[in-house]
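Q: Joint fold for the lines below.
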Amino acid sequence: MSGGSVLSCSGRGEAASRRRRRARWLAVLASIAGLVGGGTLLTGTTTSCASPPDSQRYTEIIMPDFPTYRDHVDAYLQRRCGTLDCHGQPGRAYRIYGFTGFRLYNVDAGLVSGQQPTIPEEVLANYQAAVALEPEEMSRLMATQGAEPNKLLLLRKALRIERHKGGPAMAEDDPGYRCVVAWLRIRVVRPAPDGEWEIIPQEDREKLPISAQQDCERAKSFP
Amino acid sequence: MQLDANRTAEPTSRWPTRLLGGAVVLAIASVGSSCNLDPVHNSAVNSLGPEDPEFYPPESEYHRPGEPCALCHSKKGPAKSKFVLAGTIFWGPDDYNARVDNAYVRILDANKTKKCFVTNCNGNFFVREEDFSTLTFPLLVSVERTVEPGKNEETLVIRRMASHIGREASCAICHIQGLRDFASPGQIRLFDSDQEFRDRNIPLVDCPPPEDFVQVTQCPEDRF
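A: Joint structure:
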C-alpha cells in the first residue's frame, strides 16, 4: 500500500510539473505573439498616420538685418575668418567667400582668389552661412533682440567658449566682436496689432549706431 | 599556512607574465611613436610622390620646391625637423623654374613679434620650431627681393600678402603650384606676369648653387 501510494504521489507530481512546464511555454509563446503583434500594429499605425512630404512646409527663421551685415559686418568676418586655411574652404559648415579667400564657383564669372573684388552673391552667401549655422538659435536671438549673443555658435567658437580649431578669433573687448553684436541687436520683430509678432519692414528698422559703425570700420583692418 | 604560502608564491609566478606584458606595451608604444598611424596624413604624404633628383638633391634644403613643406616637417612626420612655417617664392605666376633666391620673408605674428628669413637658391624658406618657438597665428607676411642681396639692399620688388595666415604652416596648401582658381591664388610670386620678370633680365641661379653664389643668411635688419 505504502509502495502504491508513493507511486501515485510521484505520478501526480510528474503530471503537475508537466502542466507547469506547458503553462510556462504557453506564457512564453503568448508574450512573443504579443510583442510581434504589438510591433506590427505600432509600425502599421505610425507609417499609415505619417503625413506625406509637404514641399510647401518650412520653418520660418527670423533673420538678422541683411543690409547692415552687407554694409558693415561682412568685410570684418571675411577678413578675420575667411582665409583659405580657415573658413575659406569648401569643407566648412560656416563657409566664407571673398576677394582674398575662397570664391563662389561660377563658370561665367570665373572668380579667382585674390583677383576680382567680392561680388554681392558672395556677401549674400556669407550672410546665409552665418544664419544657417544655427537657424533656430538665431531665431531665438532675434526674437529677444540679441539679448544673449554668446549663445550663438558663431560667437561661442570665436570666443573659444566652445572648442575652436583656429583658436580664439575674437575677444569681448575687441571692435570686431562689438560690431557683430551690434548687428545682432538690431530689432527685426515687433508686436503686431493682433497680439502676434511681425517682421519689421526694412524701411522702419533702426540703423547701426555710429559707435558700432566705427567699431566695424576699425575691425575691417584688423588681421 | 597554506594561504600564506600561496600569497608568497603568486607574485613570483606572475613576474614573467608581467615582464612580457610590459615589453609588449613598450614595443607598441615605440612603434606608435616612430611611425604615424593617421591614414589621412599618410595618404597626403604619399600623394606627394617620390623625390626628383634631376631637379634638386633629394632630402636636402633645396628639395620639393612649391610643395607643402610642413606636411612632412611636422609632429606627424616623417621628416625629423619640424617647421612652423615654410614655402617657396617664385618670380612669376606660372613659371615653376623661376624661383627667387635670397628673398627676405618677413613675418609679423599675433604677439607683434617680427622675424625675417631668407630663401635659398631654390626659392625655399623654412622656419624651424626652434627658430621661432613663440610664433602665434595669425601671421602677416611680406616678401622682398633687393637688387643684389648682401651688397645692394635697395628694394627691387616687394609683395605683401593681401590676407593673413590663419593657421596653416605650409604656404603651398593654399598657394597651389600651377593652379589659380576659385580656391587658390596660385604660387607665391613677386611679379604678376612672367613677362614682367623676364623683361628685367634677372639672372636665375642653379641649385645647388655654384661656388661664387652668395647665400645671404640674415635679412638686412638683422645684420646691421
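Q: Anything notable?
A: The beta strands of chain B are 83-88, 104-108, 114-118, 124-128, 140-148, 152-160. The two ends of chain B are 85 Å apart (CA to CA).
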